[in-house]
## 1
Amino acid sequence: MTDILKAIAINDEGFMTDPGQWTKEIAMTIAKLEGIDALTGVHWKIIDFCRKSGEETGKAPTLRTITDGTGVTTKELFALYPKGPAKKVAKISGLGKPEGCV
Amino acid sequence: MKTLLILGAGTGGTMVANKMTNLLDTREWRIVIVDKEETHYYQPGFLFIPFGIYQPTDVVKPKSNFFPKSAEVIYADIELIEPEKNQVKLSGNKTISYDYLVVATGSHIHPEETDGMMDGWQKNVFDFYTPQGAANLHKFFETWDGGRLVLNVAEMPIKCPVAPLEFLFLADWYFNKRGIRNKVELTFATPLSGAFTKPVASKMLGNLMESKGISVVPDFNIMEVDNSKNIIRSYDEIEVHFDVFVSIPVNKGADVIGASGMGDSLNFIPTNKNTLQTEKWENIFIIGDAGDVPSSKAGSVAHFMLDILVDNMLDHMKGHEMKASFDGHANCFIESGYNKGLLIDFNFEVEPLPGTFPFAGVGPFRLLQESYLNHIGKMGFRWIYWNILLKGYDLPFVETHMSMNGKQVLVQEPA
């Protein structure tokens, strides 16, 4: 299952370093490693937003940017991506660590 | 006459006024600085007030002591910034036009952003990021006979990410001195995965917390304060009980940034992290914690930004290419109680590492390790702040860009 990840650049903390290498298959593989077995429509809505935000700003959106931009509440976000949703969704979307974490 | 307008006369704004006054031709330029408050607060000192180490009077001086003579000072509320018109509206129907603008309006706490936090506000829910909150907490602690003290960071980023750790270290010491440490439970509930933002420091500071009997609840993203049950609850339904709750509430940039449509969702202005120019407006620069630069939001960082900002703004004024580049340098003493402290020195790329500072092998300060001399450095910093830093002078032996001198590079163990 993780063979697909061997070909891409990932840093020590598990974030992809080249968002250009990202594919939907990679997203699904990383999601499984993060404990999310199946990505639903709402999961993808959030991933799509993060990809777009990443392309525009060059960085991963913070939790607040995601909730403001998608209309998904923080509570729902935690249900979809348990524990740290901003970090988790950044990983799955092939972006770096959200800079709110400095 | 051209105008350099500085909004905010805290650490960053005051330093810029002092530095620029010597660099701009006063026949051609006037420097105007605006702030609503006449008192300058030594913000790193708020930490010591709850424990009676500093009194509220120890952290204040009149702002007017620190302005250059040539600067025009206006005490007023900043009501609206209009970057497209190069002007700023102030209270009292005053409008100022500018050629260059430096925004130094800082970051501020917003307890109302967290559900239920205002219910027990300043009764059994406190902050120590305001002088009033710190003083109220001191009064509370003086008569408290023990129980569960929970400290929480609501959301990153916050001003000074080491202050919560210092607070807990000092609390451990304070309650020990009062003879009730065995009756006090100290808990740190943090949205981070550990004690600090970066791995090596997080591990070392985490160990220090453990040795002092402070428990850490990691990945705790606060949803609400339930004051009827004395509980804080996270978005994933983890509950932590408290008797006294000390919060570092959501930090946001100034309201006027939001009102002027210049900020992100937290009212921080999108800023080029290397040039310190705003992303959107060529003649607007940011110092300190008003921007979204991914460095610590602390006074030492504002100090290291100063030289970069000044060089780049002067180059831009002359139509030259901006060459100075900020590296995210931060240098912070961490008070750890019992007259000891640690020191960390880092930037965007290099996380805090152990070693000696500023000289390899010699020190005299020790990085990421406790020492008496680090504590002396921390306590001596107040004098340096008032007398050197605010005036825009260079700090002794500390360079604008971070140096690897004295740092031990740790070899990553294979996973």
## 2
Amino acid sequence: MAFAAIFVPNFIVQAVLRAEASLRERALAIIQGVAPIWSGVAANEAAMKAGIQPGMTKSQVEQFCGIEIRHRSLGHEKSAHAALLDLGWSVSPRIEDTAVDTVVVDLTGLNSLLGPDEDIAAQILRCAVAVGLAVNVAVAPKIDVAILAARGFAGLTVIPEGAEAKRLGQLPVSVLSPSIEVLETLENWGIYTCEALAALPVLQLSERLGQEGVRLHELACGQSVRSLVLAEPEIHFEEGMELEDSVEELEPLSFLLARLLNQLCARLVTRSLAACAIRVRFELDPAFNVETQENEFSLRSDDCRRKPTPKIYDRVLTLPVAMRDSKMLLNLLRLHLQSDPPSAPILKIVLAADAARPRFSQGELYLPSSPDPEKLELTVARLASLVGDAHVGSPELMDTHRPDEFRMRRFVSTGDRPEIRRGRGNATAIRQDEVISQEPRELGKSANPRNAFRVFRPALRVSVELQMGCPTRVCVRGICGQVVAASGPWRSSGDWWREDGWQTDEWDLEIVFALSAGMRTDSVNRPQRESTLRASEHSGSERGVYRIFYDSIRQDWFLRGMYD
Amino acid sequence: MARNLTALRSQVELALTNRVAAPFNYRDRKIVETVSAGIPEIDALTGGLPRGGLTEICGPACSGRTSLLTSALASRTANAEVCALIDGQDAFDPYSAELEGVELKRLLWVRCKNMEHALRATDLLLQGGGFGMVALDLGDVPAKMMRYVPLNVWFRFRRAVEDTPTIFVVLEREANAKTCASLVLKMEAQTRSWVVTNSSASGDGNGTTAKVFQTHACLFEGSTIEVEMVRARGRKTAETSFLVRADGKGFHI
């Protein structure tokens, strides 16, 4: 039985560095508090060498040259801790959430799957780099020994059974996390290392330091045995960032979103999951809040006391297939934000991913190729930004007799096998092995294909001359034609119980539009659909079969479309 | 004479050394895969719609262009291929398309407001790739406007589908892609048939007024279409302009 402890040294600094990787090479100091009382809480090694100490005020820290100062971010620390837990779960389902900077993983039963303990620890180190953390990993037979070794030794440490006391002996007593009083007492006694503490008689130690002394002695000897307190696996992926200055342009915002998406996708990869939706939440700058501007500058006393509430921008980007490609996700987010931008500059960004199993597809030899779902989603998003969301998709017919009633459904590439129909309009599912042997041409289509119809949207208003109830002449926007054949009227109506009920008398008319030589040719200033009716640029005529209808509710004639 | 020819050949090969390898070597013409357009008469005339090429279907309004396009979409969607239709004037009728056999769930319909959007949408879809058929419907755009589309646009479209299994079909009033098109079909309606109880009557193509029928039993039966194969890469077209007939009554839709 072995346990691996993963420890993040200088956690507060690492949480900030995870969000701003460019600061890794710089001297960095973290401050916290409420303005104007800021105090230093952590610093990296370069800043410590320069003389920064925790507890210094902000003004003292600013006196040092070349020191980057950042505010402590609980959001960053929460994300870093979540990434640490994901790191543990990427190896084993049994982990303990020991502290905000420490996680213990049960390696029992993993050797046959992942190899020896050293290899597993090396894998953890590599995965930690991918999620943006620099960690210490220690493997030991006992939980507390592993934790102490991870906290005391940098990099990878493996402690075999029986060597716990010897290896821990080198570490300072402070690694055991004693109380301040006990630590002072031990220092007064000249006890600075675990080896020295382990050499003390436990009975006398308990008389002087009590149960804490016994506990510390047990830890120092490497004999502390306990069970793992298992953490419940969380399927929650969220990354956030608070900005010191608000962002209002898309380009710098894209840079920040890319960073967050990289972190999010790295965490999804460690858990072998993908995102089926991305939830975007922006906190907007309240100074630009239109609704609260009056409150900010009002002289009324109650308005002065009321704080303007920040506006929130909440959107969900639903993905047709689960994906974890950060570049693809960034492109989709950019297109989404271009079409639906926030109303004010952004102060805080939070991205959350709804996790799902990643998509696995196996190609078949006899299936036609289909668009890659991720690329298709990006193409559809670009098309939507070009022509509008409502104008891209698959048409879905509605269960109604109302003419031209349909809705646009989100297009998803199904990639399924071709269906074979036995008769027109009578689809019959057949066994899969029959598909390959049949020609697609045998799809129940008759030898004579039907007339296709072209629709005018919206329907064009026309004027009709009737003779004995039958249209004989039709005029649309100044172009007149003679009716040479007519079929109708075909009455239909519906939805009479609603406000938008309809009742129409439809006619199929063969119309000859005679165009004289003096007539103007197509004008680009006119709507293009009208110019169809005068498309002949020479004198002559244009003949076709059109459908017109009389709308009994609007009491007018319209041109619905033509047979082509 | 032979010596002169040999010297000339060597000179040409030397001049093209870094640009064309073996300019006088015979190369087999690449076999272009064709698929059914869904209408046997059209398949017999053209050999099918070419994959990786640009096909133009031209003709005035009510000449059967949309029927041919719909039939081709039905053929491809029935083969489980994902198709895309860029509708330049939002004229597509999903009801008649479904009756024709188009599987609407496999059809991506892009409803454009103007020709510029239509051309940009076509660019995006062709670059995205993976579609069995991409159809650009500019049938209602005036011919004069279509002539303003520069030739490099058609060339770019053709290059985008080259060496891919995508069939690219353009519906328009007259052919504009010139040599970029692998197949150009020109369509013209000849006669239209109306059924009145047990008899039928048709209007002739001369523009004279025929008898007007006005009963509920009068139905529009269909049109006889003439299809001319104006251009087909790899095939002679000089003598292929003929009235496609079936059942002695013409290619009927």
